[in-house]
Specification:
Strand content: 15-25%
Strand order of the largest sheet: 1-2
Structural class: alpha+beta
Oligomer: single chain
Largest sheet: 2 strands, antiparallel
Distance between the termini: 48 Å
Low-confidence stretches: none
Number of strands: 6
Shape: elongated
Helix content: 10-25%
Mean pLDDT: 88
Length: about 120
């Protein structure tokens, strides 16, 4: 008997499992949906412990001239729906889905102006 195979959208089926039978679930940090850990979109969020408005008040009231405020390092997990909705990942066409290189990161100089990096020619 012939069973037609389903069409495959991605070569890894949207996961990073590869031979493991089961993967633990994590909760989406946005909507709290249970999502397999290998399927969840993971990002590191680095931000200062004190927001900018309160930082100025702390500097004025502080005895020390300069004090480095520590930063918070969070690993954030998103389900696919929240990652698309929050524009963390974008929907790509069938041709562009095969491109595995990460997109170029924007570079900034000391003044905060965007600097375009020279593009290397494909060999």
């Amino acid at each position: 008997m012939y069973f037609p195979s389903a069409t495959i959208k991605r070569r890894n089926h949207g996961r990073n499992k590869k031979g493991r039978g089961h993967v633990k679930f994590v909760r989406c940090d946005n909507c709290f949906q249970a999502c397999p850990k290998d399927k969840a979109i993971k990002r590191f969020q680095i931000r200062p412990m004190v927001e900018a408005a309160a930082l100025r008040d702390m500097n004025e009231a502080s005895v020390y001239e300069s004090y480095a405020i520590p930063k918070i390092y969070l690993k954030v997990h998103y389900c696919v729906g929240c990652a698309i909705h929050g524009k963390i990942v974008a929907v790509r066409s069938r041709v562009n889905r095969r491109i595995r290189t990460p997109p170029p990161r924007p570079r900034f100089n000391k003044d905060g102006k965007k600097v375009t990096a020279p593009v290397k020619a494909a060999a």
